[in-house]
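Format notes (please read before filing issues)

Several people have asked whether sequences and structure tokens are stored in separate files. They are not. Every record keeps both together, in the order shown below: the sequence lines, then the token lines. Line labels are part of the format and must not be stripped during preprocessing.
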Amino acid sequence: MVEQENYYQISSSPITDPGGYIAGQLLSAIEMEDHVSADAYAVFLESSTWPSEMPADVLDNIRRLVTTLIDQTDRHKHAFRQLQDNLA
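Then the structure lines:
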């Protein structure tokens, strides 16, 4: 996979999946990415997660880093969806 324009470029070649195993794995992967993004990372964006005396610049840096993780998770989901589209 080559990252291009913030998304992974997935070959458009059809993928044979006669038993539906790959489809199930891709669906599970997308659900896991959704869970990580919503439940694990999102909480770190909230000010209430952190001590009230934390300096604003530190909190801003944490949010910037967590936002990067969320963006990467979105790219993963996009790649998995592209693979789903290629299932024959």
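For reference, the curators noted about this record: The helical segments are 21-41, 56-85. The beta strands are 2-4, 7-9.
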